[in-house]
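Example record

One chain of 299 residues, shown exactly as stored in the release files.
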Amino acid sequence: MLSIKSKRGKMNVARIATLVFVFIISSSDVFASQSTITEAAGYACMGEDRSRRQTELAALKAAKRKAIEFASTYMTSETYVKDFALEKDLVSAYANATVKIIKELEKSWYKDVNAGDCFRVKIKVEVIPDKKAMEKVSKRKDVVDNPSAPLHVRLWADKKEYKSGDRMKIYIKGNKPFYACVIYKDAAGEMVQILPNPYRNENYFQGGTIYEIPSGNDRFDLEIRPPFGEENITVYASTSPLGKIDLYSQGGVYFVKTKANDIGARTRGITLTGKSTGKSGYTSEFYENKAGVKTRSAK
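Predicted structure tokens for this chain:
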């Protein structure tokens, strides 16, 4: 079962899991994904050489192109990066970005007086910069703690290895203010959201501050119990409020009902409140950091 030591006594939660994490020195040691979420609209008209399907695809392509332009502009101007080499890496990363549609917001056919039948589509998307270029950015020491740089959230624990009976602490730290949730997945596939939780509902964090889990209003300690094996912890973070996942409260934590493969998409369904990109919507930064972990018996 998930061994949660209540600060008022031991609570037994009916789930099999073990909470243990490997110490993380920097995001380069683990999976980390940085992206930008925005909205964009695209238009296209049939003319004499396009079918309706081709026109719809052309409008969608135009919307994706605008989304990349919004994201690139945001990263190179709104993050106030003054270092030439860093700015060059960011421009390169977004010049080779890919676009993943989160949600189709609007679509419609209309008549244009001059162009005839035209199609408009508006989409909410995740703009994913070139991985190699962003790895160069994330390895720079002046980025990790720089509030003017792209969002970067570190994740670590208090020891490299845990054995049965140990208690552990988890820490997160962002370079700028961010919204986040922290989810643990055990070797059996069970998932627990440990922050926010039923007694500590904060989901907004200040940049430059180290946050400890458990602490404050948390009513649990994390004690190592079998089964042992490979497990992981993930922090989903954004400069705007995260999209919701399905949870239910049990003990001092939330158990996750959303399927593991759907959590990333659901959290990326953020409420856009970031920098305006004009009439088309807003732009916000997103960051996902994950660490593979393991635990062992006391012997």
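Notes: The mean pLDDT is 83.
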